[in-house]
Design a protein that fits this description.
The structure is a single chain. This protein is about 30% helix and about 15% strand. By secondary structure, the chain is α/β, with parallel strands linked by helices. α2 packs across α6. The protein is globular, with a radius of gyration of 18 Å. The protein starts with 18 loop residues before the first strand and ends in a 5-residue tail after the last helix. Bound molecules: zinc ion (ZN). The site of zinc ion has 4 residues, from loops.
Amino acid sequence: MTDGHHQPRLIGEENVPPLHQYNASGRSPFLLTADHYGRLIPPALGDLGLPEPELTRHIAWDIGIAGVAERLATLLDAHLIAQRYSRLVIDCNRPPGAASSIPALSEATTIPGNEGLSRDAAEARRREIFDPYHHGIDAVIGQRLQAQRPTVLVSLHSFTPVYAGVERPWHIGALYNRDTVLPQLLLKHLHAESDLVVGDNEPYAVNDLTDYTIPVHGEARGLVNTGIEIRQDLIADQSGQRQWAERLARIFAEIELELRAERLVD
Ligand SMILES: [Zn+2]
């Protein structure tokens, strides 16, 4: 507080912190992230002016990814870093300041609590949610690199099966921009699964304007990295989450051997 303004806390000691570290002592080279893990809203923001059904659908969080991410972290013995607050409060995979960072409109839903937001109010969301999460990732990567531990970033997401009336055919997609290694290995393994419709940079590609975690923590730090998007209807229940975690754990175990053979992990 350098400007003397009163800056009320959004998330106090009594509230759940945004940063969720799971299996932090995991020994795997894979470091998992989940930017849209949770859908909490700081009590001070109420319900953002939205009815309950809007706060449980895909615009609020990545449905199913929490269960997949934690099971996958356990199976791989990997460290998972996740963010517990809703992407409607602040999207932790958008550059702060981008229009979609604190969206006033998501798909066809207007978010009253995000309309006409003051600079201070937007800054508070960044300071109390976005920053602790990304500082947490940055610190973990820094510690791992200092300890010369191999670190491969895997950013986990899920996508809605229908967006703006258009059906998505893919079961899973590999998402990437500058990494030329891991997304191609992942795509090779996913294509070998005969029951899957696989998206190659579908339903989205990663880029610097619409993404944050991969460009900043993966590419800028020189880590081998990929994004993964899983269709939400496949991981809506625990059974689906378990099956997808087991499938991905099997595939990533094979990929780890290939990365080691190529000396990209050692
Ligand atoms: Zn997501």
